[in-house]
């Protein structure tokens, strides 16, 4: 068992000044790990990414945990089998990225993502699934997922996806993005999407865009998602800079 920074009976020099281990951390091994990383300076230049695995197949859950625990930057905070269990798990132990399957018991597809985002609006969701239809992919992204991967994706790309979603950047592999372009049509933005993109360029959030255009938050989010996909952008900033570079929009002084 690892002693805390103030444990007695050790000859190792304590950091100066000594720090008391938070009582909450003593009861939660993941918070204890976070405390050790922060206090002892074990993290190096990159922050630890806390991941919650959500999949209804135990073999998949344990396989993903084994794979991710081999990555020094990733800490698996828990494993659950449904979206509702994920809501409870996030309430008890926060996670930076939710790695979840698309179709599970109780809730499936975009409904599961919508439920998770409704109760945990700050959750960053990376879908990892076997389903690759355009309807599934677009439904997940429009519901609030930040990334989408297939389960046959190599480990290094899954890790890359987790890192990008952790940074709040959209992650869709080129193979999926190219296929979505066929569904979304050519890269032209609709008049409404151009209007939304101009408001994004002004720094507005989805909620502020919805209020300005008298549309629902969900509709505003769908428009922003379409803009990112059509411009092949990973985040809102990249979408705006790409549109300006291509002459699609102009920002007045």
TrEMBL record:
Its domain of life reads Bacteria
What InterPro entries does this protein's entry cite? CheY-like_superfamily, NreC/VraR/RcsB-like_REC, Sig_transdc_resp-reg_C-effctor, Sig_transdc_resp-reg_receiver, Tscrpt_reg_LuxR_C, WalR-like
GO molecular function terms listed in the Swiss-Prot or TrEMBL record: DNA binding
Q: Where is the Response regulatory domain?
A: 50-166
Q: Does the keyword DNA-binding apply?
A: yes
The annotated region (Disordered) lies at 1-24
Residue spans with biased composition (Polar residues)?
1-13
Annotated HTH luxR-type domain residues: 182-247
Q: Which UniProt keywords apply?
A: DNA-binding, Phosphoprotein
Q: Determine if Phosphoprotein is one of this entry's keywords.
A: yes
- Name this protein carries in UniProt: Response regulator transcription factor
Matching entries from CDD domains are given as: LuxR_C_like, REC_NarL-like
Q: Which residues carry this modification: 4-aspartylphosphate?
A: 101
Q: Which GO terms describe its biological process?
A: phosphorelay signal transduction system; regulation of DNA-templated transcription
